[in-house]
Design a protein that fits this description.
mainly alpha, two-stranded antiparallel ribbon, Four Helix Bundle (Hemerythrin (Met), subunit A), 165 residues, globular, 6 helices
Protein backbone atom coordinates (compact mmCIF):
# COMPACT_ATOMS: atom_id res chain seq x y z
CA UNK A 1 0.00 0.00 0.00
CA UNK A 2 2.78 2.42 0.90
CA UNK A 3 4.54 1.85 -2.43
CA UNK A 4 1.29 2.46 -4.30
CA UNK A 5 0.82 5.77 -2.47
CA UNK A 6 4.44 6.78 -3.12
CA UNK A 7 3.87 6.01 -6.81
CA UNK A 8 0.74 8.17 -6.73
CA UNK A 9 2.66 11.02 -5.12
CA UNK A 10 5.40 10.76 -7.75
CA UNK A 11 2.78 10.62 -10.51
CA UNK A 12 1.22 13.89 -9.33
CA UNK A 13 4.61 15.58 -9.00
CA UNK A 14 5.52 14.50 -12.53
CA UNK A 15 2.13 15.57 -13.89
CA UNK A 16 2.43 19.01 -12.27
CA UNK A 17 5.93 19.35 -13.75
CA UNK A 18 4.71 18.38 -17.22
CA UNK A 19 1.88 20.93 -16.98
CA UNK A 20 4.33 23.58 -15.80
CA UNK A 21 6.59 23.08 -18.81
CA UNK A 22 3.78 22.71 -21.37
CA UNK A 23 1.91 25.76 -20.17
CA UNK A 24 5.11 27.82 -20.06
CA UNK A 25 5.63 26.91 -23.73
CA UNK A 26 2.10 28.07 -24.46
CA UNK A 27 2.53 31.31 -22.51
CA UNK A 28 5.74 32.13 -24.37
CA UNK A 29 3.90 31.64 -27.68
CA UNK A 30 0.92 33.83 -26.76
CA UNK A 31 2.68 36.99 -27.84
CA UNK A 32 2.09 35.79 -31.43
CA UNK A 33 -1.69 35.89 -30.99
CA UNK A 34 -3.36 38.88 -32.68
CA UNK A 35 -5.88 38.99 -29.80
CA UNK A 36 -4.58 37.20 -26.67
CA UNK A 37 -7.29 38.48 -24.29
CA UNK A 38 -9.38 35.27 -24.15
CA UNK A 39 -6.30 33.07 -23.80
CA UNK A 40 -4.92 35.26 -21.02
CA UNK A 41 -8.25 35.16 -19.19
CA UNK A 42 -8.38 31.35 -19.37
CA UNK A 43 -4.85 31.11 -18.09
CA UNK A 44 -5.53 33.56 -15.27
CA UNK A 45 -8.50 31.39 -14.20
CA UNK A 46 -6.26 28.32 -14.22
CA UNK A 47 -3.77 30.01 -11.89
CA UNK A 48 -6.62 31.23 -9.66
CA UNK A 49 -7.95 27.67 -9.37
CA UNK A 50 -4.57 26.31 -8.35
CA UNK A 51 -4.17 29.01 -5.72
CA UNK A 52 -7.74 28.75 -4.42
CA UNK A 53 -7.59 24.97 -3.98
CA UNK A 54 -4.21 25.11 -2.28
CA UNK A 55 -5.59 27.71 0.11
CA UNK A 56 -8.51 25.36 0.80
CA UNK A 57 -6.20 22.43 1.47
CA UNK A 58 -4.07 24.48 3.86
CA UNK A 59 -6.60 26.72 5.61
CA UNK A 60 -10.12 25.49 4.84
CA UNK A 61 -10.83 28.91 3.38
CA UNK A 62 -12.01 30.26 0.06
CA UNK A 63 -11.04 33.71 -1.07
CA UNK A 64 -12.78 35.93 -3.60
CA UNK A 65 -9.41 37.45 -4.47
CA UNK A 66 -8.47 36.83 -8.11
CA UNK A 67 -5.58 37.79 -10.32
CA UNK A 68 -5.76 40.83 -12.50
CA UNK A 69 -4.78 40.13 -16.10
CA UNK A 70 -1.15 41.11 -16.33
CA UNK A 71 1.57 40.78 -18.91
CA UNK A 72 2.80 37.42 -20.09
CA UNK A 73 5.97 37.60 -18.01
CA UNK A 74 3.96 38.14 -14.82
CA UNK A 75 1.63 35.26 -15.68
CA UNK A 76 4.62 32.99 -16.30
CA UNK A 77 6.01 33.89 -12.89
CA UNK A 78 2.64 33.37 -11.20
CA UNK A 79 2.14 30.05 -12.99
CA UNK A 80 5.57 28.82 -11.89
CA UNK A 81 4.81 29.93 -8.33
CA UNK A 82 1.44 28.15 -8.28
CA UNK A 83 2.98 24.88 -9.50
CA UNK A 84 5.99 25.17 -7.18
CA UNK A 85 3.59 25.68 -4.27
CA UNK A 86 1.55 22.61 -5.25
CA UNK A 87 4.66 20.46 -5.70
CA UNK A 88 5.91 21.56 -2.29
CA UNK A 89 2.52 20.78 -0.75
CA UNK A 90 2.34 17.32 -2.38
CA UNK A 91 5.95 16.57 -1.41
CA UNK A 92 5.31 17.47 2.21
CA UNK A 93 2.01 15.57 2.44
CA UNK A 94 2.24 12.27 4.29
CA UNK A 95 1.45 9.32 2.06
CA UNK A 96 -1.74 8.33 3.89
CA UNK A 97 -2.95 11.94 3.83
CA UNK A 98 -3.10 11.85 0.01
CA UNK A 99 -6.33 9.91 0.23
CA UNK A 100 -7.63 10.95 3.65
CA UNK A 101 -10.85 12.98 3.37
CA UNK A 102 -10.62 16.57 4.54
CA UNK A 103 -13.59 18.76 5.34
CA UNK A 104 -13.18 22.01 3.47
CA UNK A 105 -15.43 25.02 3.25
CA UNK A 106 -14.05 26.43 0.09
CA UNK A 107 -16.71 26.20 -2.53
CA UNK A 108 -18.23 29.47 -3.62
CA UNK A 109 -21.59 28.49 -2.13
CA UNK A 110 -20.01 28.08 1.32
CA UNK A 111 -20.97 24.43 1.73
CA UNK A 112 -18.55 22.12 3.50
CA UNK A 113 -17.43 19.13 1.44
CA UNK A 114 -15.16 16.16 1.94
CA UNK A 115 -12.29 16.10 -0.54
CA UNK A 116 -8.88 14.45 -0.72
CA UNK A 117 -5.55 15.87 -1.80
CA UNK A 118 -5.54 13.14 -4.46
CA UNK A 119 -8.87 14.34 -5.88
CA UNK A 120 -7.83 17.99 -6.01
CA UNK A 121 -4.42 17.24 -7.53
CA UNK A 122 -6.10 15.12 -10.20
CA UNK A 123 -8.70 17.84 -10.87
CA UNK A 124 -6.10 20.60 -11.22
CA UNK A 125 -3.89 18.59 -13.54
CA UNK A 126 -6.88 17.64 -15.68
CA UNK A 127 -8.04 21.26 -15.71
CA UNK A 128 -4.58 22.33 -16.88
CA UNK A 129 -4.86 20.01 -19.86
CA UNK A 130 -8.39 21.21 -20.62
CA UNK A 131 -7.43 24.90 -20.50
CA UNK A 132 -4.34 24.25 -22.59
CA UNK A 133 -6.48 22.65 -25.29
CA UNK A 134 -8.88 25.60 -25.19
CA UNK A 135 -5.96 27.96 -25.72
CA UNK A 136 -4.63 25.80 -28.56
CA UNK A 137 -8.06 26.20 -30.18
CA UNK A 138 -7.72 29.98 -29.82
CA UNK A 139 -4.35 29.79 -31.58
CA UNK A 140 -5.91 27.89 -34.48
CA UNK A 141 -8.93 30.21 -34.75
CA UNK A 142 -6.52 33.14 -34.97
CA UNK A 143 -4.46 31.34 -37.64
CA UNK A 144 -1.43 30.88 -35.40
CA UNK A 145 0.47 27.61 -35.03
CA UNK A 146 0.42 26.56 -31.36
CA UNK A 147 3.48 24.97 -29.78
CA UNK A 148 3.51 21.17 -29.50
CA UNK A 149 2.71 20.49 -25.86
CA UNK A 150 1.45 16.90 -26.12
CA UNK A 151 2.80 14.68 -23.37
CA UNK A 152 4.05 12.12 -25.85
CA UNK A 153 6.47 14.70 -27.29
CA UNK A 154 7.89 15.42 -23.85
CA UNK A 155 8.24 11.69 -23.15
CA UNK A 156 9.97 10.76 -26.41
CA UNK A 157 13.56 9.64 -26.02
CA UNK A 158 16.10 10.56 -28.64
CA UNK A 159 18.82 8.09 -27.78
CA UNK A 160 19.40 4.71 -26.18
CA UNK A 161 21.28 6.47 -23.37
CA UNK A 162 18.14 8.43 -22.45
CA UNK A 163 16.03 5.26 -22.43
CA UNK A 164 18.49 3.54 -20.09
CA UNK A 165 18.87 6.57 -17.81
Amino acid sequence: MEQRLQNLKNYFLNYFEYNLISNQMLLRAMDRLPDPKEALELFKELIDSHRQWLRCMKTNGWSKETLKIQGLAALQTQWRGAIDDWCSFISSTELNDLQSPMLVVCLKDGDAKLVTVRDIAFQLNSMSLYVREQIVRIFRVQNCEPPHTDHVFSALRTSAAEVNA
